[in-house]
Design brief:
Blueprint: E1 29-30, H1 33-36, H2 48-61, E2 66-72, E3 78-83, H3 90-96, E4 101-102, H4 123-129, E5 132-138, H5 140-144, E6 151-157, E7 160-167, E8 172-178, H6 185-189, H7 194-211, E9 216-221, E10 224-228, H8 235-243, E11 251-258, E12 261-268, E13 280-284, E14 287-288, H9 292-302, E15 314-319, E16 325-326, E17 337-338, H10 341-356, E18 366-367, E19 388-389, H11 405-411, E20 413-418, E21 422-426, E22 432-436, H12 437-452, E23 464-474, H13 477-492, E24 497-499, E25 504-511, H14 517-521, H15 524-531, H16 538-550, H17 560-571, E26 586-589, H18 591-598
Parallel strand pairs: 2-9, 13-15
Antiparallel strand pairs: 1-4, 2-3, 3-8, 5-6, 5-8, 6-7, 9-10, 11-12, 12-15, 13-14, 16-17, 18-19, 20-21, 21-22, 22-26, 23-25, 24-25
């Protein structure tokens, strides 16, 4: 990166609404060869979104409180990024466009304590080599000192300085990029349509706006405003501005601090779950990252609690000491190495799961239009499908004031059984809950099986109930060998299975106390097939299968007492809001929601 600004903000300060005092600006210098050689350099300009990324990061490193982005024809014709950061003096402009020129590091040792998004001193040089770049800047110190110093500008085309001059401008920097890849026609062939490239830029700006809620971001595409945040410093407010979300009940906060690591952010209610991962955002010290192990940790946290193929709205910030991060490992700076990666993996999985497993689903009354919908005919954007949200919820109580599902379930009063499948119940505050009886019983049975199976804390194994007639299974050769190895585990789960000669096996029992044993017996073949899966989670999948095949069926009439008993047992589970498959058990209609709809 090659801006003159040495400002390296503490990420926690990016969430404050008051301006942070700026330290003295460091001069831009060309890095010594021994430092430049240690940098993981590479081509950083792959598409218009790459240009926007580098320029926005420069503005953030400069301490900008407002960043305005304008693009035309997907960024290939024009990209303009303006900020109100520290700016730079005239003598630094040309030097800033030289390769390996930066104000952010000076020694090899600085690479071990990076506090800025950029540090390579390559961005402006790489952009100027494939476009016409105009760099306009005025240093903040001239404005503070009351000097009548105009802003200076230079234009570099294809890496060559072609023009320079002065014009009026408040402190800060504006970088204008025209005719991107004009001299690299082969690169142009790989560009997608203008609306597709614009969609990448829009998605990128969403990410940085979520990463820096104290900064006002705006994006204009073809002179039409597509994104605008207030820079309030509050992450929940910023997410509401970006996604047009109600703040209550749809966003659950996460805030954990242990052993020098701080984790904070928000997880969207499961009704917001999407068919892709583009709304899963992770930041480390303000840097948006894509680290495979941490992404897997996040997914491990929410995967058992969401339906297959669904992913949450998830924005999390990790704050670590700078010396525990190595950001000099990837040309695009999207990957970092972490000293305590194993501990962070456990923290992320545990924190996300703890929030989602206790979050009741809300009725999805309408489709979120998204700020780009007015531009939708030309711009698909990153949210074509939209987010499912509540239609009206500005009067809802904040999520922090709501009882947990367990507390709520104890106080519920069953009213009726809908379609012999759903229990309608009233809460003390007058709100209405719908509880899926099959999924509720499924959650109860699954946790019972898991707590008693071998490997759990209780680990005494499950008692078995003999079947009236054993079930005979005929398997293939390799299946018979694998099942023979797993027979002790099946026995601990209450599935007494024995070799009956050749490739035949007899299943004589099913787990005791989990429901209708004859109902379960009808599904033993498919359950054994789960036990023969070549996967690490086959045992857990088998427990889920056992719970599902023996749980109360929809169509079963329940008495008032049976309904109360089911709700009482559900309240004692660890994750009463979601079934083992990840589908919601509870649907909540608040009293305010009902009042609005019926105009009470």
């Amino acid at each position: 990166m090659s801006r003159s600004d040495s400002f390296s903000p503490d990420i926690s300060q990016c969430f404050l609404s008051e301006p942070v005092p700026l330290p003295p600006r460091a001069p831009i210098r060309q890095l010594p060869a021994e430092v430049a050689e240690r940098i993981a350099a590479g081509e950083v300009i792959e598409r218009p979104a790459s240009v926007v990324k580098e320029l926005v990061e420069n503005a953030l490193d400069a301490g900008a409180r407002e960043i305005r982005v304008e693009i035309r024809e997907g960024g290939l014709r024009l990209i303009r990024v303006s900020d109100d950061g520290q700016g730079m003096p005239e003598e630094d402009l040309e030097r800033a466009c030289a390769r390996h020129s930066t104000s952010k590091i000076a020694r090899v040792e600085d690479l071990e304590h990076l506090n800025t998004l950029g540090f390579r001193g390559e961005a402006l040089a790489s952009i100027a080599a494939v476009s016409e770049l105009t760099l306009l800047s005025r240093p903040i110190e001239s404005e503070v000192a009351g000097q009548e110093v105009p802003a200076a500008w230079i234009t570099v085309r294809g890496g060559e300085l072609v023009q320079r001059g002065h014009r009026a401008r408040p402190h800060g920097t504006t970088v204008t990029v025209r005719e991107l890849f004009y001299n690299v026609p082969a690169r142009l062939k790989f560009m997608r349509s203008a609306r597709s490239e614009a969609g990448h830029i829009l998605q990128l700006l969403y990410r940085y706006a979520a990463g820096y809620p104290a900064v006002r971001f705006s994006l204009s595409i073809e002179e039409q405003s597509l994104l605008q945040t207030s820079g309030s410093g509050d992450l929940a407010t910023t997410l509401a501005e970006l996604y047009r979300l109600p703040l209550a009940e749809l966003l659950s906060p996460i805030e954990v601090e242990e052993e020098g690591v701080k984790l904070f952010g928000y997880v969207g209610n499961r009704v917001l779950a999407q068919p892709n991962r583009q709304h899963v955002m992770l930041f480390i010290n303000g840097r948006p990252v894509q680290i495979r192990t941490l992404q897997e940790a996040l997914e491990a946290g929410y995967r058992p609690l969401l339906a297959k193929g669904r992913h949450p709205l998830l924005v999390l910030h990790l704050q670590l000491p700078a010396q525990e991060i190595d950001a000099n490992v990837h040309p695009a700076k999207t990957e970092v190495r972490l000293r305590r990666e194993r501990e962070l993996v456990a923290l992320l999985t545990r924190s996300v799961r703890a929030v989602l497993e206790r979050s009741p689903a809300l009725p999805a009354e309408s489709t979120w239009p998204g700020p780009a919908d007015v531009y939708q005919p030309r711009l698909p954007g990153p949210r074509r499908r939209g987010l499912r949200v509540l239609e009206a919820s500005e009067h809802y109580r904040s999520a922090g004031n709501l009882p947990t599902p367990a507390e709520m379930l104890v106080a519920l009063r069953p009213l009726a059984q809908l379609q012999e499948a759903v229990i309608l119940a009233e809460a003390p505050d007058g709100s209405l809950y719908l509880i899926d009886q099959h999924r509720a019983h499924e959650r109860i049975l699954y946790e019972h099986l898991r707590s008693h199976s071998a490997g759990s804390e209780r680990a005494e194994g499950l008692a078995a109930r003999l079947l009236l007639e054993p079930v005979v299974l005929e398997l293939k050769g390799w299946q018979a060998e694998l099942l023979e190895q797993r027979l002790p585990i099946l026995t601990s789960l209450g599935l007494d299975c024995e070799h009956f000669g050749g490739r035949s096996f007899l299943v004589r029992s099913v787990p005791e106390g989990i429901g209708d044993s004859e109902q379960l017996a009808a599904h033993l073949r498919e359950l054994v097939e789960i036990a023969l899966e070549d996967s690490e989670d086959w045992k857990d999948r088998l427990l889920i299968g056992l719970a599902c095949r023996s749980a109360l069926r929809r169509g079963r009439v329940l008495s008032q007492g049976e309904q109360e008993e089911l709700l009482h047992r559900l309240a004692q589970t660890a994750a009463p809001a979601v079934c083992p498959h990840g589908s919601p058990v509870l649907l909540h209609y608040s009293r305010t929601f009902l009042s609005e709809k019926f105009e009470w």
